[in-house]
Amino acid sequence: MLAMEAVRRLLALRHGRAEDLPVVLARAAPLLDANSAGVLLIDYGQLSLCPLHGSTDGDLGPQAVEATAAGRCFITATETHDDGHLWLPLLHGAERLGVLGLGFKEMPSAAVRHDLEVIAALVAELIASRRFYGDAVEHTRRRLPMQLAAEIIWNQLPPLTCAVDGTVVTAVLEPCYDVGGDAFDYAVNGDVLHVGLFDTVGHGISASALTTLTLNTYRNARRSGLSLADTCRSIDKWINAQYPGSFVTALLVELDTATGHYRRISAGHPAELLLRDGRLLPALRTPTALPLGLGHMLGRAPGITEQQLEPGDTLVLYTDGITEARDANGVLFGPDRLSDFMITALKGGLTAPEIMRRLVHTIVTYEDGELRDDATAAMLQWQH
């Protein structure tokens, strides 16, 4: 009954703010037989877990993702514990928001921990639903000032991860505080997963404005029920009309999640990786259309490539900022290193979001912390 009272107090936050959550949690902790409770959210760089803005519990400070129990909880999306703290993942669907930390004199039983997972799920839902009614979540997640171009892009994007009936799509963007020309979008409608990965010419505000038009034209075409080819034509038409001479390279994808039938248009974009049973399959034909905004110059329909996937197949879509990253000697990261990284990570049994997190940090490290271009990647895994 005490745990139910904790639930009631948390549910009252449906009419509150995200920044009120730390206080409510702290007061509800004794009802859970805990001596402390707090929320840590993942920062934009996915390097550290930070106390939610409004926290007053000095016992729960920032935690590095690497080499901490809280970080292991985030990485694996499973409970961990250390030094009297039980850490539970905060998951909104498949999206990793952070971790819930509960302090105990003695670790609770497995049955009690199962009930606490419900509390963690409720906390995650409250954070996700209240985050847009104030800036507490944004204040928490930002470790550096965010440039305006990046602000525009991040406000356009869906959650980084989505999982439906065994199909997972997850993405990363870097530099997270200064991205301007790269973006992605997805939607699951019935049995069809739609994914778009875009790389806009230029950088900064002008690039983010073009990217905003591209994303919303893509959504409008998709929601209007246009075919894949007509979606490509629609985006191309609007870019040419509003930004003549500019262009966006893109992969426009449709995956039938029931059958594994994969269709895509490569509009001047690098080919995705297709991985199966620990090996790289031959690349699909690319490009099959001119970059978006230049299609009118060709005068023919965009080509659609089709591929039948097998259960367990992984697709990696990426912008050239990934493969064209350079080390101190000017050596490109290249598609071979990318495929080797993916094959090794998949064999290691890492989750899709964790693989993408590690990939983008590998790219940043390869360029010694200073990316020369936006680097974006999206990973699709199909199981049926």
TrEMBL record:
Pfam families: SpoIIE. Keywords: Hydrolase. It comes from Paractinoplanes toevensis. The keyword Hydrolase applies. This is PPM-type phosphatase domain-containing protein. The keyword Hydrolase applies. InterPro entries: Bact_Sigma-Reg, PPM-type-like_dom_sf, PPM-type_phosphatase-like_dom. It comes from the Bacteria. Gene3D superfamilies: PPM-type phosphatase domain. PANTHER family: STAGE II SPORULATION PROTEIN E, STAGE II SPORULATION PROTEIN E-RELATED. Residues 164-382 form the PPM-type phosphatase domain. One of its GO terms (molecular function) is phosphatase activity.
